[in-house]
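User: Could you check the structure of this?
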Amino acid sequence: MLTVAHRINTVVDADRIAVVDGGRIREIGDPYMLLRDPASALSQLVSSEEEEEEEEGEEGGGGGRRRREELLASARRAYLHREVGEADW
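Assistant: Sure, the predicted structure tokens are below.
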């Protein structure tokens, strides 16, 4: 199945994602692993959104960091479900 999304929370529980920029694939991988790597394009995208939210004063400060933590937690749950199995964690 292929899902085209403009919101990261739509795809964090996918098996694999492709980060596309300017019509080119920048990286492909498991969302959890990509979010854990500060050098990944996905992680940098989330960081840039955090900075924009902080500059605009959205969500009362710290909202961008909370959002990253929520995305990482969702991606981790999906990763563990796939890799370990629901009953084991």
